[in-house]
TrEMBL record:
The chain holds residues 301 to 592 of 640 of the full protein. This is ATPase. It is found in: Cell membrane. Belongs to the cation transport ATPase (P-type) (TC 3.A.3) family. Type IB subfamily. It comes from the Bacteria.
Amino acid sequence: SIMPATLSGISNGARKGILFKGGVHLENLHKVKAIAFDKTGTLTKGKPEVTNLVIRSDQRKDEVLTAVAAIENQSNHPLAQAIVMYIKNNYDVALTSPEAVEDIPGFGVQSTLNGADWKIGKAEWFGEHTLESFQESVTDRLSQEGKTVVFIEKNGTVIGFIALKDTVRKETEEAIEQLKKAGITTIMLTGDSESTAKAIAAETNVDHYVARCLPETKVTELKKLLKQYGTVAMVGDGINDAPALATASVGIAMGEGTDVALETADVVLMKNDLPRIAEAIRLSRRMKRIVK
Ligand code: ADP
Ligand code: MG
């Protein structure tokens, strides 16, 4: 049966925009020693904007951008939406329909269009040779500025890239600060590159980060954290985060996250308001004292 203190804690939480799907999650929160955060859509707004677009000069730019827009138009990824918007707004391209587009989670998208094979996605997907061959120093610098760099490959050769910048939520730094003061270790898990992750980690002040995570890597990292810290919470918004949310002692979803994240989580932050996490932990600690 639910203790009166737990009930009042749950209703207190609801008033503050923290939805507990059961008393046990509120009770578990006081034990949390570490919290893992997804980057895109959780620590950041998840609304990236294109900042740079470079196509090798021996290519027909309109043809490349037509293909990129057509292919990315079939993907639901936030990067894809930003890329399509940018191309539509800045170039005169017609949106044609490519043959089947394959979404490779954590890597990018690929398709065949007008007889050419296209791949659009992260550097690691293309191997070392393609990286060295194309403006490495430029893309390195962009990553160090916290931008996500997406490469365009046509018939096995990288012929261009697009850089996108997502904005860190204005409450993120405060939220991390409060958790640190409460003695909790903060870790960022992201599918993004090492240098982009490093830049965002510095901007948000998290204690640690793990870059180049695939959805299953996020689960592996969580299991490591559980071994090290005992009780660990995970905060996320995406379909990609659902397995990690389920693995964590307490899964916390951003209120505007995807349905799968909301369904999987134990706690929902109604207004995407990250500082509410520290508040929820205070609530849980206070309740624990009352129950004792
Ligand atoms: P995160 O964990 O940062 O939300 P994801 O796991 O969704 O990232 O994706 C990791 C990386 O894969 C992205 O940073 C991007 O480089 C690449 N990627 C994924 N989907 C796409 C896409 N539709 N178009 C271009 N790049 C993509
Ligand atoms: Mg996300």
